[in-house]
Structure formats: structure tokens, C-alpha cells
Amino acid sequence: MSTVAIPVPEATVPVKGEGRPTPWWGMVCLIMTEATLFAGLIGSYFFYRAASKQWPPPGIEEPKLTLSIIMSFVLWGSSIPMIFAERGIKRGNQARLRIGLIGAWIMGAAFLGYSMKDFSELHFRWGQNAYSSIYYTTVGLHTFHVFVGLVMSGVVQIKAWLGKFSEERHVTVQVYAMYWHFVDVVWLFVMPTFILSPHIK
């Protein structure tokens, strides 16, 4: 009895997935979640301010402006070397990747050091009143995000120096850059709200 060979169609599943990679979508979801959280905290700040007769409340000094503005520009400026790094690895330039990552890390670390020093010099406690609570929660949460970003940068830099990234493989760098830019953008809203607005009567 003869057997008939049944032709097996070639695999149609592409070797490389089309569209955005899963880590990219994961970071988008994280950013959306965190953005919603910060939006709620900033909204709460203005709610408390509108409901208060005096803002900041008695006994709380207005935030210092000069150093805060300088260090804010340091943090915002850290996106420039990050863009430099990301565009570099997209072209297969390992040196640009490493230089950009360490530059952004140094600027972020400087801002984190300033933030920790600023918290240590505050003359009010976390639970003193509504102002102190929302200040510590929101500014402290952003400071924590900067810290997490620096830790993430350390991991990415180790991989960069080990040559794990290339022109074709750099999703990790792209996803991390998204997170870092998000941290910078959030400060565009947190800083005017908590540092500048108390000086506006």
C-alpha cells in the first residue's frame, strides 16, 4: 500500500515580531499609571490651596528658589545626553552610548543629592499639616523615581560596557530612555507647583 506525502506549508510566523516590542508597551503602561498618580497628587495640592485661607500654612517657610531653579535645569538638561546616547546606539556607536549614559547619570545624581539635602533642611515634618503631607508625598515620590532611574542606569551602563547593545539590539536603552524622559517631564509640573507657586500670592 503506497503512502501519499502530504506537503507541509512553510512556517509563516515571522522571525522578528512586527510593531513595538513588549518592553516598550510595558514602559508605556507604567508611565501612564505613574502620570495618573502624579496628576492626582498635584490636583490635591491645588485643592488644598484653594480651600485654605493662607498658603503655605503658618509656620512653613516658602521653598528656596535660586538653587532649586538651577538644579531643576540640571535635571531637565540630563535628557540631552540621554538623547545623545540613544541616537548613538541606533547608529551602532558604542562610545556615544556610554558617554551619554554616564553624562545623564552624573546630572541625575547631582539633582538627587540636592533633593536629599533639601529634604534634610526642611523645617516642617511630614504629618504636620496638609501642606507638609502633600509636599513630602509628591516631591518625595519624584525623588524616589530619580533614584530608581539612577539604579536602572547603572544596570544599562554595565550592559553597555559589556557590549550587549548594537544597532539592531537596543530595546533596553530605548525603554530606559523613555523612563528617564518621563522623570524629567514630571518635574516640569512638580517644580512649578511646589517650588514656584507658594511664592505667588
Feature tags:
mainly alpha, Four Helix Bundle (Hemerythrin (Met), subunit A), 6 helices, 0% strand
Q: Could you say which overall geometry the principal axes of the C-alpha atoms support?
A: elongated
* Helical content class: 55-70%
**CATH topology name:** Four Helix Bundle (Hemerythrin (Met), subunit A)
Portion of residues in beta strands equals: under 5%
* Number of continuous helical runs: 6
Structural class: mainly alpha
Low-confidence stretches: none
Average pLDDT: 89
Distance between the termini: 97 Å
CATH architecture: Up-down Bundle
Over the alpha carbons, how many angstroms does the gyration radius reach? Answer: 23 Å
Order of helices and strands: HHHHHH
Major sheet description: none
**CATH superfamily annotation:** Cytochrome c oxidase, subunit III, four-helix bundle
**Count of strand segments:** 0
Domains, number: 1
The CATH class, by name, is: Mainly Alpha
Word description of this protein:
The structure is a single chain. The chain has six helices and no strands. With 201 residues, the chain is mainly α. The chain has a single domain, classed as Up-down Bundle (Four Helix Bundle (Hemerythrin (Met), subunit A)), CATH 1.20.120. It is elongated and about 80 Å long. The mean pLDDT is 89.
Give the arrangement of secondary structure elements.
Layout: H1 22-51, H2 66-77, H3 79-90, H4 94-120, H5 130-161, H6 171-196
Helix pairs in contact: 1-5, 1-6, 2-4, 2-6, 3-4, 3-6, 4-5, 5-6
